[in-house]
Protein backbone atom coordinates (compact mmCIF):
# COMPACT_ATOMS: atom_id res chain seq x y z
CA UNK A 1 0.00 0.00 0.00
CA UNK A 2 1.19 3.47 -0.85
CA UNK A 3 2.40 5.55 2.03
CA UNK A 4 0.76 8.97 1.53
CA UNK A 5 3.64 10.63 3.39
CA UNK A 6 6.24 9.22 1.05
CA UNK A 7 6.98 11.18 -2.13
CA UNK A 8 7.59 8.23 -4.47
CA UNK A 9 5.96 9.64 -7.54
CA UNK A 10 8.98 10.28 -9.78
CA UNK A 11 7.33 13.22 -11.47
CA UNK A 12 6.94 15.00 -8.13
CA UNK A 13 10.48 14.47 -6.96
CA UNK A 14 12.63 17.48 -7.55
CA UNK A 15 16.26 16.44 -8.20
CA UNK A 16 17.41 19.62 -6.44
CA UNK A 17 15.86 18.46 -3.20
CA UNK A 18 17.22 14.93 -3.40
CA UNK A 19 20.87 15.67 -4.05
CA UNK A 20 23.40 17.40 -1.88
CA UNK A 21 23.70 21.13 -2.62
CA UNK A 22 26.75 22.08 -4.63
CA UNK A 23 26.61 25.84 -4.22
CA UNK A 24 26.85 25.87 -0.42
CA UNK A 25 29.27 28.36 1.14
CA UNK A 26 32.73 26.91 1.56
CA UNK A 27 34.45 27.72 4.88
CA UNK A 28 36.58 30.66 3.70
CA UNK A 29 33.71 32.44 1.95
CA UNK A 30 31.58 31.81 5.02
CA UNK A 31 34.08 33.29 7.51
CA UNK A 32 34.85 36.24 5.25
CA UNK A 33 31.10 36.87 4.93
CA UNK A 34 30.81 36.87 8.72
CA UNK A 35 33.57 39.50 8.83
CA UNK A 36 31.71 41.62 6.27
CA UNK A 37 28.39 41.20 8.07
CA UNK A 38 30.04 42.33 11.29
CA UNK A 39 31.45 45.39 9.46
CA UNK A 40 27.85 46.43 8.85
CA UNK A 41 27.66 47.27 12.57
CA UNK A 42 30.34 49.96 12.17
CA UNK A 43 29.32 53.60 12.49
CA UNK A 44 32.41 54.79 10.63
CA UNK A 45 31.05 56.78 7.68
CA UNK A 46 34.00 56.11 5.39
CA UNK A 47 35.46 52.67 6.13
CA UNK A 48 33.65 49.76 7.76
CA UNK A 49 35.96 46.90 8.75
CA UNK A 50 34.98 43.52 10.17
CA UNK A 51 37.08 40.69 11.57
CA UNK A 52 36.31 37.07 12.41
CA UNK A 53 38.67 34.76 14.32
CA UNK A 54 38.42 31.03 13.68
CA UNK A 55 40.12 28.12 15.44
CA UNK A 56 41.50 24.93 13.88
CA UNK A 57 38.12 23.21 14.28
CA UNK A 58 36.48 25.85 12.03
CA UNK A 59 34.73 27.36 15.03
CA UNK A 60 34.31 31.11 15.32
CA UNK A 61 35.92 32.32 18.54
CA UNK A 62 35.81 36.11 18.10
CA UNK A 63 34.11 38.75 15.97
CA UNK A 64 34.66 42.51 15.86
CA UNK A 65 34.24 45.70 13.85
CA UNK A 66 35.73 49.18 14.05
CA UNK A 67 34.03 51.38 16.57
CA UNK A 68 34.52 53.68 19.52
CA UNK A 69 35.61 52.13 22.83
CA UNK A 70 33.05 50.77 25.29
CA UNK A 71 31.34 53.44 27.41
CA UNK A 72 32.55 56.21 25.05
CA UNK A 73 29.52 57.45 23.19
CA UNK A 74 30.01 57.40 19.45
CA UNK A 75 27.88 60.54 19.34
CA UNK A 76 30.41 62.41 21.49
CA UNK A 77 33.53 61.43 19.55
CA UNK A 78 34.47 62.70 16.07
CA UNK A 79 34.23 60.62 12.88
CA UNK A 80 36.19 63.05 10.68
CA UNK A 81 39.27 61.93 8.75
CA UNK A 82 40.90 65.32 8.35
CA UNK A 83 41.69 68.33 10.53
CA UNK A 84 43.32 68.62 13.92
CA UNK A 85 44.29 65.05 14.92
CA UNK A 86 42.35 65.27 18.18
CA UNK A 87 39.24 66.22 16.20
CA UNK A 88 39.49 63.15 13.96
CA UNK A 89 38.42 59.55 14.67
CA UNK A 90 41.97 58.20 14.55
CA UNK A 91 43.07 58.61 18.20
CA UNK A 92 39.82 57.08 19.47
CA UNK A 93 38.48 54.34 17.22
CA UNK A 94 39.16 50.68 18.10
CA UNK A 95 40.10 48.64 15.08
CA UNK A 96 38.09 45.58 14.05
CA UNK A 97 40.98 43.20 14.73
CA UNK A 98 41.45 44.56 18.26
CA UNK A 99 37.75 44.16 18.99
CA UNK A 100 37.66 40.62 17.60
CA UNK A 101 40.62 39.63 19.79
CA UNK A 102 39.15 41.34 22.87
CA UNK A 103 35.75 39.74 22.22
CA UNK A 104 37.18 36.21 22.14
CA UNK A 105 34.93 33.59 23.71
CA UNK A 106 37.76 31.22 24.64
CA UNK A 107 40.85 31.54 26.78
CA UNK A 108 43.30 31.96 23.92
CA UNK A 109 43.29 32.63 20.18
CA UNK A 110 46.75 31.15 19.80
CA UNK A 111 47.06 29.23 16.53
CA UNK A 112 43.85 30.74 15.13
CA UNK A 113 43.17 32.41 11.78
CA UNK A 114 41.76 35.92 11.48
CA UNK A 115 39.54 36.87 8.52
CA UNK A 116 39.57 40.62 7.84
CA UNK A 117 37.97 42.87 5.28
CA UNK A 118 41.09 45.05 5.07
CA UNK A 119 44.77 44.14 5.42
CA UNK A 120 45.61 44.87 9.10
CA UNK A 121 47.55 48.02 9.99
CA UNK A 122 50.82 47.88 11.98
CA UNK A 123 49.01 48.36 15.31
CA UNK A 124 46.70 45.44 14.55
CA UNK A 125 49.65 43.38 13.29
CA UNK A 126 51.23 43.80 16.74
CA UNK A 127 48.04 42.62 18.43
CA UNK A 128 47.71 39.69 16.04
CA UNK A 129 51.28 38.61 16.74
CA UNK A 130 51.00 39.02 20.51
CA UNK A 131 47.74 37.09 20.63
CA UNK A 132 49.35 34.11 18.87
CA UNK A 133 47.16 34.26 15.74
CA UNK A 134 49.04 32.41 13.01
CA UNK A 135 47.21 33.30 9.82
CA UNK A 136 45.58 36.41 8.32
CA UNK A 137 43.11 36.09 5.45
CA UNK A 138 42.24 39.51 4.06
CA UNK A 139 40.02 40.79 1.28
CA UNK A 140 41.34 44.23 0.36
CA UNK A 141 44.87 45.57 0.41
CA UNK A 142 43.94 49.04 -0.82
CA UNK A 143 46.44 50.83 1.45
CA UNK A 144 49.30 48.53 0.42
CA UNK A 145 51.76 51.37 -0.21
CA UNK A 146 51.14 53.16 3.12
CA UNK A 147 54.00 53.07 5.62
CA UNK A 148 51.65 51.47 8.17
CA UNK A 149 51.05 48.52 5.86
CA UNK A 150 54.72 48.20 4.97
CA UNK A 151 55.50 48.07 8.71
CA UNK A 152 52.66 45.61 9.20
CA UNK A 153 54.04 43.21 6.57
CA UNK A 154 57.52 43.54 8.06
CA UNK A 155 56.22 42.57 11.51
CA UNK A 156 54.05 39.71 10.24
CA UNK A 157 56.94 38.34 8.18
CA UNK A 158 59.36 38.47 11.11
CA UNK A 159 56.83 36.76 13.37
CA UNK A 160 56.04 34.10 10.72
CA UNK A 161 52.37 35.02 10.60
CA UNK A 162 51.07 33.89 7.20
CA UNK A 163 48.87 36.26 5.21
CA UNK A 164 46.80 35.46 2.13
CA UNK A 165 44.37 37.47 0.04
CA UNK A 166 40.97 35.83 -0.16
CA UNK A 167 39.66 35.04 -3.62
CA UNK A 168 35.94 34.39 -3.12
CA UNK A 169 34.31 31.40 -4.83
CA UNK A 170 30.93 33.10 -4.59
CA UNK A 171 31.11 36.48 -6.31
CA UNK A 172 27.97 37.65 -4.54
CA UNK A 173 26.33 36.58 -1.28
CA UNK A 174 22.94 38.12 -0.63
CA UNK A 175 20.66 37.84 2.37
CA UNK A 176 17.30 38.90 1.06
CA UNK A 177 14.86 38.93 3.98
CA UNK A 178 11.92 39.72 1.68
CA UNK A 179 12.63 36.64 -0.39
CA UNK A 180 13.14 34.48 2.72
CA UNK A 181 9.82 35.64 4.15
CA UNK A 182 8.05 34.98 0.85
CA UNK A 183 9.44 31.42 0.66
CA UNK A 184 8.42 30.60 4.23
CA UNK A 185 4.82 31.74 3.89
O1 LIG B 1 43.70 47.53 10.56
C1 LIG B 1 42.73 48.34 10.52
C2 LIG B 1 42.86 49.59 9.95
C3 LIG B 1 41.81 50.47 10.04
N1 LIG B 1 40.68 50.11 10.67
C4 LIG B 1 39.58 51.07 10.79
C5 LIG B 1 39.90 52.31 11.58
C6 LIG B 1 39.03 53.35 10.97
O2 LIG B 1 37.74 53.32 11.60
C7 LIG B 1 38.90 52.91 9.53
C8 LIG B 1 39.88 53.61 8.60
O3 LIG B 1 39.32 54.82 8.24
P1 LIG B 1 39.76 55.62 6.93
O4 LIG B 1 38.70 56.67 6.79
O5 LIG B 1 39.74 54.65 5.77
O6 LIG B 1 41.13 56.17 7.18
O7 LIG B 1 39.23 51.54 9.51
C9 LIG B 1 40.53 48.86 11.20
O8 LIG B 1 39.47 48.52 11.77
N2 LIG B 1 41.56 48.00 11.10
ZN1 LIG C 1 44.48 48.32 12.72
UniProtKB/TrEMBL annotation:
The active site is at residue 97. Pfam families: dCMP_cyt_deam_1. It is an enzyme of class 3 (hydrolase). InterPro entries: APOBEC/CMP_deaminase_Zn-bd, CMP_dCMP_dom, Cytidine_deaminase-like, dCMP_deaminase, dCMP_deaminase-rel, Deoxycytidylate_deaminase_dom. Its cofactor is Zn(2+). GO terms for molecular function: dCMP deaminase activity; zinc ion binding. GO terms for cellular component: cytoplasm. CDD domains: deoxycytidylate_deaminase. Keywords: Hydrolase, Metal-binding, Nucleotide biosynthesis, Zinc. Catalyzes the deamination of dCMP to dUMP, providing the nucleoside monophosphate substrate for the thymidylate synthase/TYMS. Also, part of a nucleotide salvage pathway that eliminates epigenetically modified 5-hydroxymethyl-dCMP (hmdCMP) in a two-step process entailing deamination to cytotoxic 5-hydroxymethyl-dUMP (hmdUMP), followed by its hydrolysis into 5-hydroxymethyluracil (hmU) and 2-deoxy-D-ribose 5-phosphate (deoxyribosephosphate). Catalyzes the first step in that pathway, the deamination of 5-hydroxymethyl-dCMP (hmdCMP). PANTHER family: DEOXYCYTIDYLATE DEAMINASE, DEOXYCYTIDYLATE DEAMINASE-RELATED. This is Deoxycytidylate deaminase. It comes from Ciona savignyi (Pacific transparent sea squirt).
